[in-house]
Amino acid sequence: MTREETPGVRDIAVVAFAQTDVLRTTDELSEVEMLMPVLHSVLDRTGLKTADIGFTCSGSSDYLAGRAFSFTLALDGVGAWPPISESHVETDGAWALYEAWTKLLTGDADTALVYSYGKSSPGSLRDVLTRQLDPYYVAPLWPDSVALAALQAQALIDAGEADESALAAIGTRSRRVATLNSHAQLRGTVPQGDYAVRPLRTGDCPPVGDGAAAVILAAGERARELCSRPAWIRGIDHRIEAHSLGVRDLTDSPSTRLAAEKAGVFERPVDTAELHAPFSAQEIVLRKALRLDDSVRVNLSGGALAANPMMAAGLIRIGEAAARIHRGESDRALGHATSGPCLQQNLVAVLEGDAR
Amino acid sequence: MPEVLKAPLVVEFPFTRSLGPVQSAFLTGLRERVVLGVRTGDDRTLVPPVEYDPVTAEELHDLVEVAATGTVTTWAWNHAPRRGQPLATPFAWVLVRLDGADTALLHALDAPGPDAVRTGMRVRIRWAEERTGAITDIACFEPHDGDPAELTGTTGEFADPVTGIVAPARLDYTYSPGRAQSAYIEALSTRRTVGERCPSCRKVYVPPRGACPTCGVPTAEQVEVGPRGTVTTFCIVNIKAKNLDIEVPYVYAHIALDGAGLALHGRISGIPYDQVRMGLRVEPVWTDGARYPDHYRPAGEPDADYDAYKELL
Ligand SMILES: [Zn+2]
């Protein structure tokens, strides 16, 4: 929803963002050891201490860790004793940010720490992700994440909206601009490679990596105290589509479009967009759903094709969009996160800086 | 820094799931070589069928048979099949709209190569020889030249309906415990217990996890604790666990090793269970080749004063 729809509610902003370098493996670190430098980095940017935070919300997945309640160990990193006001989502941290935003809207807290992390390296990510599929009709067939994205890419090709070279260009551009992003996993020239699952080649697929990210939200005057140019959340919404792939039009993303509409994206142009498109064809689908033309700077970070740490990559999109506003490089930016196969669930946030 | 420890971690689970009336009819139908869809309020036929309309959320129950032949709506060539997938030889993933259906079903297509597959091609179901009432009763699809298959006339009523499925899953991991816990495990291999001191509150955590949960800061300074310790609290276990070779009743206790800032837990033996008490001084007992103490036994010292361990309860 947007602020305009709910007059009288408080202004809430992203005031700080931090992320790890995304690496193929981080064997030497437990989750909390990987996370802790990011938590301290984001706190340092605001001068806050863990004890000053009003609400904490995290995103992660037990299936990546291979252990039940794995997020509880990561809580050691935020000083969870004595007890704090805390919650967790079993998905990307962008949804943890949504929960934290609603918590701040209630007035129960003025600041929130949002973090998320994922170590894909211990398991086989393509197999692990099959466990999020419909357990009756789909999961018993073990269709992996690349295969499902390949079905979507072929649908787009059949519809005449892309061809293999257009897909390749998206991966190439993503990794080229990622040379400016020291946290990205794949930077510079990356071969388009062999078919992973045809029509997708390895260059159309995201790298598998470990990483973490953290964001601090603050309300009203508190945001201005903590950040010289807060990234105000003007609207944020998330929507979901039918679970069954065969019911959906895979060449479109109506849930992204609806979330964007509800978040107020279409009210005024954005100058910057960070899209969570793990596979090249998905960027085409998202650009169409969000009506982004060439005037919008898309994925200057390199996006998910350069670094896609599970459970953090969506939060990173919002963080990257906010950081550009903090630095004065954007005035109105869009952050998008996705979860599930073939863009099943989508979250859209609109961020704005104060007029200069 | 010591070498990072790694070990295989296998997670296996056989989920038992019950079926609603629509899923039951669909999966029972597959067992009987019949494909059923469900009709929506706007007269669309969803295959595979769902219990609620994905657009209106209206409850659905109007079953209708569709043909075992259909048309590929999109596909992807899988040259390297993975464990658990329908075919062990290269195949195409396909979404197939069966004749009579308005939506598509995901499955595998057995074809000689990607050049033999295209969107719009006609296919038919190849049934599995042994069928149990599961999506895998469809072995795969195969190319089909010709007309829609004839319907069987099944209504969706079956004598012996399937009411549940067992969905086995296995995921393989290589677990790595990280820096702090690796150091703890390495020390145990020489029968020493090592914790980490918080630089802020000075508390010594054992086993260490690399962070102080009170201060939210990394811990790094290693501190050897024990080997002796104090029972801070305990319980008497009267139920024998499956596969556990320990006679009941036995005592399970929280033990504050000397120098540690919090208690870990362990079994107490070498003393009748009803004589274990708070403050009892204990020491670890190692068995040959063990990677951690088998249990703790009385150390033969006077009991610790309550004040000495009350902060560790
Ligand atoms: Zn401490």
From TrEMBL, chain A:
Check the record and name the SUPFAM superfamilies matching this protein: Thiolase-like
Query: Could you tell me the superkingdom of the organism this chain comes from?
Result: Bacteria
Q: Where is the signal peptide?
A: none
List the PANTHER family: ACETYL-COA C-ACETYLTRANSFERASE (PTHR42870), NON-SPECIFIC LIPID-TRANSFER PROTEIN-LIKE 2 (PTHR42870:SF1)
NCBIfam families of this UniProt entry?
A: PRK07937.1
The name on file for this protein is Acetyl-CoA acetyltransferase
Species name: Streptomyces achromogenes
